[in-house]
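Quick look at the format.
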Amino acid sequence: MTALVVATSAFLLTHLVTGTPLRPRLVAALGEWPYRGAYSVLAFLTLGWMIWAYAHTAPQPLWAGLRLLPLIVMPIALILIMCGYHRNPTMVGADRLLASEDPARGMIRITRHPIMWGLMLWAASHILARGDASSLVFFGGFLAVALIGTLSMDRRKRADPNWERFAGVTSHIPFMAIAQGRNRLAWREIGWRRPLIGIAVFVVLLVLHPWLFGARPY
């Protein structure tokens, strides 16, 4: 458990750097691409450490796990993730989309952070399903990174002159902008291909879950 806590803390700190004044200093010292390369290597190393520590930590039950919850939540999470890779102005390197005539289309009308919300739903559903201390630390680390990441993205992109226009018609919380009348739901823009890919990925993970992760999902 100690190793898992330390590894998760290192994983969190690695990702928190991107939202602090330290990031531009590192970019200035190393260059943009060397910084990204070093950051990616460090992120993967801490992630591998987390996985190793989690696999070697004995479960310490905290509550009766809601084992079937991921079966309900994960299709939604994977659809959000798959759709989030299409015309998403909040993705790294996609700032140019903020200047488009209609920057909030498809899944972005529902939430401006569909990928991160997919990750948060994945992490939260697994915390509740497992119900033990090691899962709380492990998946809680991903939940914290995704949530803090969305807030950090919003803060950084406020410097873009097109951000206020984009933020005015979108919301962090899913469906909030639609409920407030600042946007509308457009199923045609979302389409069927990416949601079907998300469901297909869910089915594959469901079948392979015992072999990939050593646990039955149901």
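Next, a different chain entirely:
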Amino acid sequence: MISQHQKPLMSGFGAKTEPSEILENINLADKTVIITGGYSGIGLETTKAIKANGARVLIPAKRLDVATKELSGIIPREDIFEMDLADLSSVKSFTDSFNSANNTLDILINNAGIMACPETRVYKNWESQFAVNQIGHFVLTKELMNSMKNAKKSRLVSLSSSAHQISAIRWDDVHFNNAPYEKWAAYGQSKTASSLLAIEFDSQMKEFGGRGFSVHPGGILTPLQRHLANEEMVALGWKKEDGTLSDMAAKFFKSPSQGSSTTLWCATSSMLENMGGVFCENCDVAERKVNLDESMTRFFGVADWAVDSDDARKLWVETEKMIKNN
């Protein structure tokens, strides 16, 4: 089932809206916010914007030294914590620590992720992109849900991507145990999962005032592309051979700060007060995309498989099984 709300609201914002426009007249002084990957790329811009508007921001980080350096002067050192999404004991250690020290969590932003990386196996032979982008964030989210219930009104923002259109969930072979590994299919599947996580969170939490949103931040060049050689980005149409942006990318790609704006809109907008369980882009709810483009230049719209509530519930159950069985 697809939410009746999966259609644009005509928010008045757009692809190149800046954080200052989204957060104008919004006071976050009484809010506690957790942002994974909040020290790099659009995550860092998200942290800066939310912190500047008064919230307490906590950053769990795999690279603690890098996070401490990048966030110096932005948030206190005591609000930066070590956590590796590929290590579930690390995730549980962070959530236990947070829950013991804090009664409420107002906003959780699952921003961290890896993209199109070489085949890597983590934990019990899990494919790394699904493990980091989905399973790690699933455990983080689930362990923080009671604190979010206590907040009375809370929001989850889960960062997906237009790449979700590459692949639905590969129900029979999620971890590429039976088929050859394909990095883009693995990434696409993980970003479908990121969206479905928000859909099921919303279903379970709305009676407690919690709402969930998935976000395509837009085309942005950040450290997320670290596994892609320049020639591959040329083939994708993102760059020219000299390493500069292609004409297409120059027109459609966003700055990192603009890339954080849809996340900020989903986390704070009063337009979303009584709705959730939708996929958003360009600071608005996205349109459903009926005809999926075969190329990698698919930048807009959401495939039904990323917002289907039945699939969202099924993935929640299947992810729980993976964790329990391992």
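The radius of gyration is 18 Å.

See the schema section for token definitions.
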